[in-house]
Amino acid sequence: MSSSLTILLVGGYGTFGGRIVELLEDEPRLSLIIAGRSMEKAAAYCRGREKAKANLAPTFFDRDGNLAVQLEALKPDVLIDASGPFQAYGADRYRLIEACIARKVHYLDLADGSAFVAGVNDFDDAARMEGVWVLTGVSSFPVLTAAVVRRLSSGMARIDTIHGGIAPSPYAGVGENVIRAIASYAGQPVSIKKDGRITTDHPFTEHMRFTIAPGGRLPLRNTLFSLVDVPDLVALANLWPQARTIWMGAGPVPELLHRALVAWAWLVRLRVLPSLSFLAPLMHIAMNHLRWGEHRGGMFVAVQGAAADGTPLERSWHLLAEGADGPLIPSMAVEAIVRRVLDGHVPTPGARAAVRELELDDYERLFERKTIYTGLRDDLAVEKGPLYARLLGPAWPALPEPIRQMHDLAGTRIAKGNASVERGTGLLSRIAAAIIGFPSAAESVPVRVEFRECGGTETWTRTFGGKTFSSEQFAGQGRSDSLLCERFGPLTFAMALVLDDECLRLVLRRWSLFGLPLPLWLAPRSDAYESVEGGRFAFHVEISHPISGLIVRYRGRLAIVEG
């Protein structure tokens, strides 16, 4: 294959096709034929990509028409099917693949249906004979998940369970074909490997919760994931036949809409409704217009297994995508393969799921160009080591040494220093400060902090001059998983530990009174971070509230004197 490529992109002006173009348009060695049933839409799309270095050309293409004639006229090197929904292609669902093999056109698709992807293997012999590579399921599920499992399972002699999930941003924009696919299988029976046997389950009626938390980054909020019908359910079972359970989910937000979908899926499972396909238009409107929450998305893969000596191992991989970069991830497998082909790394002829075509290194090179962050965690280590080290995971070594020393705690430690204290003057501010026990205002006051660790909980007793107040810190669980919880009497604040250059910030994510969760918009506002000043550990804590104004602000430096 030459160093230039002509790619026919079916569905090129749609949601996924457009994202593929966005990822590849900076490559001048590419000619991208933007194809679909509307020549007008294809032409308008091409006109809108004014900065493209690749050659973009619109064309009419009907996948239900005479494919041989259309392929002969366009003469592409590669065809990428980004249309779908693949679950709805009908009895003759592989006619585009057959036409590509017959015309010696290489083929990629973003199929997300487990049955469709599994069936592509039937064309392996024909593709090999013609010297054509046919790769299906070229998306996050199952290409990225398979690459992650290979990384996580390094050193494992046995894999017992594989769980994964994707949590798109509520502002990602969901294509109509994606919604049609979800509506077609929600509540319907699918085969899944569970507890060592193949059984039947029903998408969107089985759930788990998970917190996506790359170390040192602001984690996503604890997310509800529901089982989905994706190629991984079959492809990963073929790659790791010893795994007893393979489960993949999606965590769409807002959770209110997610739970509404769950309720409808149960009506299908209970055979009250034959399917949710009739709801697809309404679902599309709801998912693309009823939006609130953070413009962030993520993905996780978790593997449980054992080492050769039988030692249990549990590892998880976390991906966090900020803003508009998250929606690009499902299309990045196509980008990576196309760029590899341009550089001379051509896939082996044959028809198969693309689960072995890429490694996590291939993805990581693409992630570096975006606001996409990843991290691996040793989940069994959550019960070992200092509290802050357990929560920060792989980000712990990146902390400045004075901060790491202060939190490398086992038993008892005492630190001393000086601080300044400012207090709010309003009545509500004074009442709030008195309830917690915050110190009185002072320009310079001696500070003594005693840290006492016992059973994974740290008790911090702070003395500013003659005024003492204390709190307990511990690792959050459930909805506060991966967060640092600090308890002041009846109030508990759950905070994310975020590494910000040379600072460690504590970002409030949840709070509760007597264990009852309270709305975050009612919470005090905090600006709390630890840093290094003059080679010494420094702290800054500012607490305020929109109603009362400043409550307290104290800052200073500490040095370890004992422990």
* Sequence of strands across the biggest β-sheet: 17-18-19-20-21-22-23-25-26-27
Number of helices: 16
* Silhouette: elongated
Strand content: 35-45%
Second CATH tier, the architecture of the domain at 148-324 and 372-378: 2-Layer Sandwich
End-to-end gap: 66 Å
Query: How big is the Rg?
Result: 27 Å
CATH C-level class of the domain at 148-324 and 372-378 is Alpha Beta
The helicity comes to: 25-40%
Largest sheet: 10 strands, antiparallel, barrel
**Mean of all residue-level pLDDT scores:** 94
Q: Which class do the helix and strand fractions yield? A: alpha+beta
Number of strands: 27
**Remind me, CATH topology of the domain at 148-324 and 372-378?**
Dihydrodipicolinate Reductase, domain 2
What does this structure look like?
It is a single chain. Helix content is 26%, strand content 36%. The chain is an alpha+beta fold and 563 residues long. Helix 8 packs across helix 11 (280-289).
Search tags:
563 residues; Lipocalin; single chain; 16 helices; alpha+beta; Dihydrodipicolinate Reductase, domain 2; 36% strand
